Amino acid sequence: MLGLDTNDDNRRKNSPELFLRCTVSSIFGIFTQLALLSIPHFAGVFSLFFQLILSGFVLMIVTIFGQFVRRFLGVRASAPSFVFFHMIFIWSVYVIVIRHAVSPLIDILFNGMLACLLIGFYRMLVSDPGFVRCDLPMSVKAPASEDGAHPEELTMSETSRCFPNSIEEASLSARRVHYCRSCKAHILGFDHHCPAFGNCIGEKNHALFMGLLVGFMVTEALYALSAYQWTEKNKIHKANSSAIVQSLAISTMIFSLIQVLWQVAFFIWHVYCVCFNIRTEEWINWRRYPEFHVIAHPSQSSSEKRFRNPYHKGIFINLKDFFRRYR
After folding, report:
1. Helices 243-275 and 8-42 meet at what angle, rounded to 10?
2. How many angstroms separate the CA atoms of 203 and 190, rounded?
3. pLDDT digits (tens), the chain, 327 positions
4. Which end of the chain is more exposed for a tag (fewer CB within 10 A), N or C?
5. Residue 198: left (phi > 0), alpha (psi -120 to 50), or beta?
6. Which residues pair with 267 in a beta bridge?
């Protein structure tokens, strides 16, 4: 993905493929917005809640259809380019259509937040999630995890090669080094591979990831509020805006609301992970990692593995450690 190539020659060699993937993502983004635009245009007589539900189903259908088309044509898309396209598209609609209907304070906040998001988005693309140089044999392959990242558990003899400075450092830290096949690298504190940001989320960029989640939620909520104010003023003053422009304002507002809904749920999950000092990968695939095992009824013939989190030190200490690591 974007931002993960470490060799300039490889970047130049892959530039035509990268350009194709970005183009495919932009076309798919246009198709997505056109599909959403049809909802308020043809179903505008229904309530906003019904249009929201219908738009969610349309997004699911468009996503499935897009995956089928890409597989049929044998082309790949770039998720970061898809996200970037929607950021620029929403900003363009705001500047051209929505902006004159909002207060100066909302205007400053929205434009400032979106500018910060673009900077943070680029930083995430090129950030180091916690790459660890491990001289490990790659013949042993672990089964794929649900996010497709294929993390591998490292034994203590192997992890000592990741942290050669001291045995103590290896024993404390290297247990949480896992392999991501999307990035083809070992990541310290591996949480998951995020296709939207084109990078792994690990020890060094987890806080940046959560900050971007908050930024996206606030920015999209501001846009939804601005679009709603525009539609209400348009009704009161009976402006001569075209039906397409009105539908565009409503469809982008609904799109932003849908994004906020799943991002809030995702953010709450990561707050939980930080508070209890556990990674998404560890929580989903805890049976792979012996340090999370507690043997129930060891005296019986059939013992049962139960979950325990050896890294949980209390919520306050976990939060303190999280922000200290980021600094």
Report:
1. 120
2. 7
3. 333 333 333 444 467 888 888 999 999 999 999 999 999 988 888 888 999 999 999 999 999 998 898 888 888 888 999 999 999 999 999 999 999 889 999 999 999 999 999 999 999 999 999 998 765 444 334 444 444 444 444 443 344 345 434 333 444 455 788 888 888 889 999 999 999 998 999 999 999 999 999 999 999 999 999 999 999 888 776 666 788 899 999 999 999 999 999 999 999 999 999 999 999 999 998 888 888 888 766 665 556 788 989 999 999 999 998 888 766
4. C
5. left
6. none
- Residue 42 tokens, joined: 């043809």
Please tell me whether the overall predicted TM-score, pTM, comes out greater than 0.70 for this model: yes
Outline where 45-137 has alpha helix (H). 48-73, 79-93, 104-126
- Cα–chain center distance at 74: 24
Residue spans of alpha helices (H) in the chain: 8-42, 48-73, 79-93, 104-126, 156-159, 167-173, 206-237, 243-275, 280-284, 315-326
Residue/partner pairs of 150-155 with CB below 8 Å, 24 or more apart: 150/179, 150/180, 150/181, 150/182, 151/178, 151/179, 151/180, 151/190, 151/281, 151/285, 152/178, 152/179, 153/178, 153/288, 153/289, 154/178, 154/179, 154/186
* Distance, CA of 201 to chain centre: 9
Contact 236, 30 (CB under 8 A): no
